[in-house]
Design brief:
Elements (H helix, E strand, L loop, with lengths): L2 H46 L3 H21 L6 H13 L7 E4 L3 E3 L2 E13 H13 L4 E9 L8 E12 L14
Antiparallel strand pairs: 1-3, 2-3, 3-5, 4-5
């Protein structure tokens, strides 16, 4: 090949590269313009209020969920009713002489936690059933501590059990969450 044909070949390669780059740039530009059109359409829809229906529906769903959650965290004054229900359910398990204790309320964010201590001696199945019953309550009860031990002089299936439950509640009056007395 002669020098002019090599130059022509190089020039053709450069022109092809430039055209390819320009074509790739045009494709990227077209995709970018398409996305820009989508964003502008979304902005226009928000400005016109066309999307308010879905926003209202989402807000209604969140309000319904919040109302359901509020039922899981009842007022502090309902703790006595809960303790009565726990004792009633526990009595049905056939465990003799359980010892119950209720501690003082402790702040936990905007709610309070009320500790309930229970000690008893019972079988593994009765302990398991009591824990299952706790999980069935429609309010927030956390098992903070669970200690199960066997005693050397007890039958094999007998356990000494200590449980600390924490019940989440709404303060009955302002200042209760900080442990203060609102008078």
């Amino acid at each position: 090949m002669t020098r002019p044909s090599n130059t022509l070949l190089v020039a053709a390669g450069i022109i092809a590269g430039v055209l390819l780059a320009a074509n790739l740039h045009r494709g990227a530009l077209a995709r970018g313009e398409g996305r820009l059109a989508q964003v502008r359409a979304e902005i226009a829809g928000l400005r016109s209020g066309a999307d308010q229906g879905s926003t209202r529906a989402r807000l209604a769903l969140l309000q319904t969920q919040a109302e359901r959650c509020a039922g899981l965290i009842p007022a502090q004054s309902t703790t006595a009713e809960l303790l009565t229900a726990l004792k009633r359910d526990f009595a049905g398990l056939g465990v003799a002489s359980p010892e119950w204790g209720i501690g003082s309320a402790q702040p936990s964010g905007s709610q309070i936690e009320i500790p309930i201590d229970l000690t008893f001696e019972g079988s593994f199945p009765s302990t398991h059933e009591f824990l299952r019953l706790i999980g069935a309550y429609e309010r927030i009860i956390r098992i903070e501590k669970l200690v199960c031990m066997t005693q050397p002089d007890s039958p094999a299936d007998q356990l000494s059990v200590a449980i600390r439950l924490c019940v989440l509640a709404q303060p009955d009056h302002p200042g209760a969450e900080s442990g203060g007395d609102a008078r």
